[in-house]
Amino acid sequence: MQRGHPSQYCRLNLHVPVLVIYFDGESDLRPDFRLSRLTVAHLIQLLRSPLDHGWGHDLEVLVFLFWMASATSYRVVSRAFAIPRSTVHDIIHRVTEKVLRLKNRLIFFPSADQLQTTGAGFERLAGSAAFARVVGSIDGCHIRIKPPSADAQCYFNRKLFHSIQLQAVCDHQCQFLDIFVGYPGSVHDARVLKNSPLYVKKLYPPEGFQILGDGGYPCTSEPLALITPYREPVRNPVEARFNRHHAKARSVIERAFGIMKARWRSIFFKALEVKPQFAVKVIACCAILHNLCQKDGDILEPVEEALGPDDGGDPVQPDLACGERLRGRIAAAVSAPVNNPPALQDHDY
């Protein structure tokens, strides 16, 4: 019999505390599994296959979520569920692969019809109609890991800890539209971007639309329109006004990261003690489950320590031939009067 097959634990003691909480049908699951009961049921249904029978499949999902929620050792999970440690290992890796297969169902770009709604959302966030063509906000996030045995120096970032990077684009409602995971912490945000499919394959945004980023990114119009703030100190009130509105809209990605970190605190606020290759998959699962929760209305308030720019490093040099001109047009639109001043209302010359 294959190790970790559900039939090996189909007669488990249902009186262990974590299973009592689940099977009583009433208890709040968030303390132990970080998802609401509705979202847990939805995830179980999404991951179920025709080959899954009985409640063995449910148990596997619960084991996986319990480990994600606590980021603890397999030994601790084994004791919590009264199943062998080797089985816990197999379950966690198996369910991780299943969750990864949900990526394109839960993380995707808006359709052409949805772009206008997304743009309107960023217009509201910015408080300016000049941002009506903005359809995303991009940033990077460092996830702390245990120093790997090989190439540890590559993972040592400017904040003086070992990490793996997550680059993400989100919409105005904190839902991720794209994720790119795996670069070691020593790599600058701009380099991560330029090696990501988003940039290389010109995946998003569509022509005529823009995404917002912080000063760690280049201000570009090709191969994608990425608008960053003016470097401080600004030179005039137009640039200052643009930066204020830009920050209001761009910060939605910080909120998205903050919500995700609040849910998976054990993963994001202590070193993830798995191999880097598996850590990449775990981080991607966090983002996928974040979107599932957002869609199901399973909302958590972001943690305060995650609200704030994840400084991408030294600002990149401006490229006057590309995004600077586009940014200048948006900045001018931000400062343009909404209504004609009284001196211009009585004539048309």
UniProtKB/TrEMBL annotation:
<feature type="domain" description="DDE Tnp4">
    <location>
        <begin position="138"/>
        <end position="291"/>
    </location>
</feature>
<dbReference type="GO" id="GO:0016787">
    <property type="term" value="F:hydrolase activity"/>
</dbReference>
<dbReference type="GO" id="GO:0005634">
    <property type="term" value="C:nucleus"/>
</dbReference>
<keyword id="KW-0963">Cytoplasm</keyword>
<keyword id="KW-0539">Nucleus</keyword>
<comment type="similarity">
    <text>Belongs to the HARBI1 family.</text>
</comment>
<keyword id="KW-0479">Metal-binding</keyword>
<dbReference type="GO" id="GO:0005737">
    <property type="term" value="C:cytoplasm"/>
</dbReference>
<dbReference type="Pfam" id="PF13359">
    <property type="entry name" value="DDE_Tnp_4"/>
</dbReference>
<dbReference type="GO" id="GO:0046872">
    <property type="term" value="F:metal ion binding"/>
</dbReference>
<keyword id="KW-0540">Nuclease</keyword>
<keyword id="KW-0378">Hydrolase</keyword>
<dbReference type="GO" id="GO:0004518">
    <property type="term" value="F:nuclease activity"/>
</dbReference>
<dbReference type="InterPro" id="IPR026103">
    <property type="entry name" value="HARBI1_animal"/>
</dbReference>
<comment type="function">
    <text>Transposase-derived protein that may have nuclease activity. Does not have transposase activity.</text>
</comment>
<dbReference type="InterPro" id="IPR027806">
    <property type="entry name" value="HARBI1_dom"/>
</dbReference>
<dbReference type="InterPro" id="IPR045249">
    <property type="entry name" value="HARBI1-like"/>
</dbReference>
<protein>
    <recommendedName>
        <fullName>Putative nuclease HARBI1</fullName>
    </recommendedName>
</protein>
